[in-house]
Amino acid sequence: MEGDPTLRLRVFNLNCWAIRYLSKRRQERVRLIGDTLRREGFDLVLLQEVWSEQDYSDLKAKLGGCYPFSHYFRSGVIGSGLCVFSRFPILDTLLYQYSLNGYPYMLQHGDWFCGKSVGLVLAWGFTISLPPGSCQLHAEYCREKDAYLPHRLVQAWELAQFIRHTSKAADVVLLGGDLNMHPEDVGIRLLRGWTGLRDAFAEATRFEGCEDGCTLIPNNCFTVKTELLPFPLGIRIDYILYKAISSFTVKCEELKTTMGTAPGTDIPFSDHEAVMATLHIQRQGRAAGANLGTAEPMLPDVVTEARTEVGVGLRAAQRQRYSTGRMAVLALLLLLLQAVAALGALAGLAAGQPFPKLSFSLLAFLAIGVLLLATGLHLFHTMEVKMLQGTEEQMRMALRALQERP
Predict the structure, then answer these.
(1) Are residues 34 and 180 in the same domain?
(2) The organism sits in which domain of life (predicted)?
């Protein structure tokens, strides 16, 4: 921002829900997104769930004239789905993949396979932090009994730490993505309190869009209506968060969301509504300073609440580790018993006794399969326990530091 004390930044954030072979009318919606971005001319575009690199290539080809700089973040088995398009030069990028991201055996959810991450982009002299192209956290599949809450809190904590440690030399920090958390959830309170990020919806001078800024709404034809029954207006889980550091200030002049179908079409961009913010960035004459983690007086309570939930997840992971370890031991004992029985059968065979080869083979294959599966799960849950223990210890240290402050 050298030579120019002000900047008016227009940001577009969207979870595109572009899963090949699974998302409805994917190619048509990707073309519609590209046409809209080309027409509107945003400064920065943050996209999540662009799972097909071909879709990214198509968007890049379509938007090259308007957004000459772009980057696609790769991680996991099927990719992070995160990408960014920018009018400003992208000087450097960094990807951090969360240490916990669900369970590999929960195939119907699939979060583990995508390697959800936070991507950082250094653009034109100020840092833009992007969680879920941005950033995406583990989805919430059941609010009443949320088995993934400890994992999502670990992700929120790692995201907050990532922002805290990478933004020290920045002028402005901008975070956009699908955080899969309601505004009042402990994870979003932890993220905002620990980093000092401000919510564009809460800070906007002007707002236009869905009531309460909701980004999953019943009027969207692609949303699962039964999941929104407890929330008749919808829910807000997509965010644009920001803060200024050093001698800069940032204000949200305007925030908009789409409201179902895109203009002039019969379909929306995605099952999520897009969030569009206009930010006014200005250089001040003196350094403002930014002491992270001091702006929120209730932060110790938030950290305590998050640590408690992580502890619940830790105990559940320890039980899973014990169960899978016991299963592996039982499978190994079964194989040993089979070996003993086989030796006895071979001795009996010399005396003219029949040897049940088929049943022994089937039982052996079953025992080997159970042993391999249980061992793999035991190793996974052992790593889960270590990650949860590490996060709980970090939160304990952070809480002690907060409580010792005057």
Answers:
(1) yes
(2) Eukaryota
pLDDT digits (tens, 9 = 90+) for 303-356: 999 999 999 999 999 999 999 999 999 999 999 988 887 777 666 655 555 656
- Which tens digit of pLDDT belongs to each residue from 389-403? 999 999 999 999 998
Q: Please indicate, yes or no, whether residues 244 and 271 belong to a single structural domain of this protein.
A: yes
Question: Which residues are designated catalytic?
Answer: 272
326 and 231 in a single domain? The answer is no
Contact predicate 274/209, CB 8 Å: no
Between residues 365 and 293, the one the model is more confident about: 365
Judgement on whether residues 246 and 395 belong to the same structural domain of the protein:
no
Range of the domain at 76: 7-294
Single pTM value for the model: 0.88
